[in-house]
Design goal:
With 244 residues, the chain is of the alpha/beta class. The protein has a single domain, classed as Ribonuclease Z/Hydroxyacylglutathione hydrolase-like (Metallo-beta-lactamase, Chain A), CATH 3.60.15.10. Helices cover 21% and strands 28% of the residues. Strands 6-5-4-3-2-1-14 form a seven-stranded mixed β-sheet. It is globular and about 55 Å long.
Length: 244
């Protein structure tokens, strides 16, 4: 599996950046995980919108889905230009029926509901879900293929169930929207200490901090998390690729 970071800012994209979006590739299959503001523009440095095979969404806050509409129009326009791609499946939950309904657009995209307590097959990937602690219904994902795994937390404050869900994963892509002196629990987010303790208890092989704050020295997040986690820690960076 190869993971490429497309966007990683929390809440909204920083200047010239993008909010949540991650491209996961395996055996020629391209899965986009979340599609926040700025993602479609940045994605085209790596692949074209018509080349995506599927999109999966953690939840429906704008910083995770804002570019779904423009993705739909990009594939529509490619059809007008003679490169009509197949209908793109957009996987999401149905706990917000209105937002889920917008995933289907003409014959361009089709909203496909995942069942949180069942494993979902998407191309070569097996995806399992964990409901997170966040103001909007949101699901973390454990994505497995060829004996390797990635866990993406989506948005959440820390919860004990994350440990078993993420145990021994090859890569933990963990939201980290706050510094250690801040308590993100009421906002449904983790801080650097939460992320580090989480990674250590789950015995993950490496930790990438994402959904980052727009203020302060974000390199401090690594220092703070490293007080808790003894493994490899990185900040998410634009177009950063990790092969697993």
């Amino acid at each position: 599996m190869k993971l490429t970071i497309i966007g990683y800012w929390g809440g909204y994209p920083k200047k010239n950046g993008a909010s949540s979006g991650y491209l996961l590739e395996h055996e020629g299959y391209q899965l986009l995980i979340d599609c926040g503001s700025g993602v479609l523009s940045k994605l085209q440095n790596i692949t074209q919108p018509e080349n995506l095979d599927a999109v999966i969404l953690s939840h429906y806050h704008p910083d995770h889905i804002a570019d779904i509409g423009v993705l739909q129009h990009a594939r529509l326009i490619q059809g007008f230009l003679g490169k009509k791609p197949p209908t793109l499946p957009l996987f999401g939950h149905q706990l917000d029926p209105y937002e889920f309904s917008k995933l289907t657009y003409k014959d361009i995209t089709k909203g496909v509901s995942y069942t949180p307590n069942e494993t979902l097959t998407v191309g070569p990937f097996q995806v399992s879900f964990l409901r997170t602690d966040h103001p909007a219904p949101c699901f973390a994902m454990r994505i497995e293929a060829s004996g390797k795994s990635i866990v993406y937390t989506g948005d959440s404050s820390f919860k004990d169930e994350f440990i078993e869900f993420s145990q021994s994963t090859d890569l933990l892509l963990c939201e980290c929207n706050f510094y250690r002196h801040q308590n993100g629990k009421s906002a449904g987010h983790m801080n650097s200490v939460d992320a580090g303790k989480f990674a250590q208890k789950a015995e993950v092989k490496q930790l990438i901090l994402t959904h980052l704050p727009h203020y302060g020295d974000i390199s401090e997040l690594i220092t703070e998390a490293a007080n808790e986690f003894t493994g490899i820690i990185m900040l998410a960076e634009e177009f950063q690729s990790i092969s697993i």
